Amino acid sequence: MKRAVVSIVLFFDVILLAVTGIVAVFDNLIGEQAEFVVKLIHFIAGLVFMVFAVYHIVYNWKVLKSYLKKKK
């Protein structure tokens, strides 16, 4: 269950980061208030992504180590 939740959150967070990142590049097409909201959402989504990515790595550390050993 935890693995599925983390994977789903990371998947949708990457999409959110991509969309808000693209919108932030074209910030001259939106108003100042909308620009602030988009950049705030992007910032928060980035923090969420970092937290869940670290959790994902810690939770799957044994599996990741086994993948690295197989590569050698």
Polypeptide structure, described:
With 72 residues, this protein is mostly helical. It has one domain (2-71). It contains 3 helices and no strands. The chain has helices at residues 2-25, 32-59, 61-71. Helix 1 (2-25) runs antiparallel to helix 2 (32-59). The longest helix has 28 residues, at 32-59. It is elongated, with a radius of gyration of 16 Å. The two termini are 31 Å apart.
Overview features:
72 residues; mainly alpha; 88% helix
Question: In a few lines, what is going on in this structure?
Answer:
Helix content is 88%, strand content 0%. The chain is an all-alpha fold and 72 residues long.
Shape: elongated
Helix fraction, binned, reads: over 70%
Q: How confident overall, as mean pLDDT?
A: 89
Number of strands: 0
Report the major sheet.
none
Q: pLDDT below 50 for ≥5 consecutive residues: which ranges?
A: none
If helices are DSSP runs of H or I spanning 4 or more residues, what is the number of helices?
3
List the helices and strands and how they pair.
Blueprint: H1 2-25, H2 32-59, H3 61-71
